[in-house]
UniProtKB/TrEMBL annotation:
GO molecular function: metal ion binding
Similarity section: Belongs to the peptidase M16 family.
A Pfam family that the UniProt record links to this protein: Peptidase_M16_C
Gene3D superfamilies in the record: Metalloenzyme, LuxS/M16 peptidase-like
Recorded superkingdom: Bacteria
InterPro entries listed in its UniProt record: Metalloenz_LuxS/M16 (IPR011249), MPP/UQCRC_Complex (IPR050361), Peptidase_M16_C (IPR007863)
Protein name, entry field: Peptidase M16 domain protein
Segments forming domain Peptidase M16 C-terminal: 190-363
Organism, scientific name: Candidatus Beckwithbacteria bacterium GW2011_GWA2_43_10
Length: 448
């Protein structure tokens, strides 16, 4: 017997739809808050594992760093983990750290209950570090210098940095380049690391994520008590809350000379969303991204008729700004045809929207992707950490599905008219012999 296209089972006279069971599973408390200040969350992982993971999450990253601080967080997370190396080798501790624009994480893996003693060692090293080891400091400064040098030399890094610089006006912290970061790090001292630690590793900026499969109450209590015993810094009275703004540039054509193949790289970007936008608006942007990509359900399938293989969509959604972008590789003779096709499809999307059949297929795929991510141990932990850091609450797949189910074609049309503003489009062209590509011709292809 079927119901709503899902197979159902009978228990006595009660018919149970697996889709409802699945929804119930995600509305259960898979995330529990155990302790306020410091905030500790227990995450129940979906797949059986004997490992327990602890994430220390800072709700700050590069973007919260002023010009003089820029890069200090990166150097500090290197220093803290490197200071643990001897103990890590001796006790078989698996730990690491990473920093991004708006979040910093330190994480450790505990393989069994006997290794809980390693947790105390890890926490002590992160929150009560010794800032006197010049050898480790110099070694990690050199390691980061090499790491950044490799990134600066990377073709894709250079292109991304150039595109971000054009997308935002003025000194936006989302568009600072690697060279500036490297210069800042080279001037840092251990005193700078200690000062940064006191300003950012504070009880209002840190929370803890303990992830595992059906962790016992006894183990949970041991971990939470160990965390509660940490004496976290208070927010310094003279430390100002990060306050900066990013303004978007208007229509712009930027040509970047790079010796690549006979093809050229083309990137088209629009001002995007911030985390303050509603989740429905974020989903609408992703739906539009799918439609304007060379996907099976998209509306750009004709790019193959032009001899172009693919159109990729990407987005960045941050606290202060964001962008959506489309990229492809093509020959110079194909540029005019592609731009006319892309511009025409934008017009079509704003006026007609999308066929119901295609919209249903995209929504179904997005719901499937959401469920698959939440059913993966690593992705669930990352999902929870991000949501807590950015929104202060966890948005489950059930929430996603409810929003996606409400999306109509009229929503797509309205959002396309708002987000795809050609007057604020950036056109980035990368290649070797591109000087003779006419700006006037590009404008003509996009605005006729």
């Amino acid at each position: 017997m079927t119901k709503n296209n899902h197979q159902t089972f009978k228990r006595g006279q009660l018919e149970i739809d697996p889709a409802l069971i699945l929804r119930h599973k995600y509305t259960m408390n898979c995330v529990k808050k155990m302790s306020p200040r410091p905030d500790v969350y227990i995450v129940d992982l979906p797949k059986k594992t004997g490992d327990i993971f602890l994430d220390i999450v800072l709700k700050s990253g590069y973007a919260e760093e002023g010009e003089k601080e820029f890069g200090t967080g990166h150097l500090l997370e290197h220093y803290l983990i490197s200071s643990l190396w001897d103990d890590m080798r001796r006790n078989n501790i698996e730990a690491n750290a990473e920093i991004s624009l708006e979040m910093t994480k330190h994480y450790v893996k505990i393989r069994n209950i006997k290794e809980l003693k390693n947790l105390k060692l890890f926490l002590k090293n992160i929150f009560k570090p010794d800032f006197s080891n010049e050898n480790i400091f110099k070694k990690e400064k050199k390691a980061i210098t090499n790491e950044l040098a490799v990134k600066i030399a990377s073709f894709h890094e250079r292109i991304d940095a150039a595109a971000e610089k054009e997308r935002f006006k003025g000194k936006c912290r989302y568009a600072r380049d690697r060279k500036t970061q490297l210069k800042s790090i080279l001037n840092k001292s251990l005193k700078d690391l200690e000062k940064y630690h006191g300003e950012f590793y504070t009880e209002n900026n840190v929370f803890f994520l303990v992830s595992g499969y059906k962790i016992s109450k006894k183990v949970t209590r041991q971990i939470v008590e160990g965390i509660k015993n940490i004496d976290l810094h208070k927010k310094p009275a003279d430390k100002k809350t990060c306050d900066f703004s990013c303004a978007y540039s208007n229509f712009k054509i930027k040509k970047i000379k790079e010796k690549i193949s006979k093809q050229i790289l083309l990137a088209l970007s629009f001002p995007g969303l911030t985390v303050k936008n509603s989740y429905k608006e974020r989903f609408l942007s992703r739906i539009i991204g799918r439609l304007l990509s060379a996907t099976q359900e998209g509306i750009m399938a004709e790019v193959r008729d032009l001899g172009i293989y693919d159109v990729r969509y990407e987005e960045a959604t941050l606290k202060k700004a964001g962008y959506i972008g489309f990229g492809t590789a093509l020959e110079k003779k194909q540029l005019d045809g592609f731009l006319k096709l892309f511009s025409g499809k934008i017009k079509e999307l704003k006026i007609k929207g999308v066929e119901e059949r295609k919209l249903k297929k995209i929504v179904a795929d997005m719901k499937k992707s959401s469920r698959r991510s939440f059913e993966n141990n690593n992705e669930r932990a990352e999902w929870v950490a991000y949501d807590l850091a950015v929104y202060g609450r966890v948005i489950t797949p059930t929430d996603d599905w409810r929003i996606l189910d409400s999306v109509k074609n009229e929503d797509v049309k309205k959002w396309a008219r708002k987000i795809l503003d050609r007057k604020k489009m950036n056109v980035i062209i990368v290649g070797d012999k591109i000087k003779n590509i006419s700006n006037q011709k590009i404008r003509g292809a996009l605005f006729t």
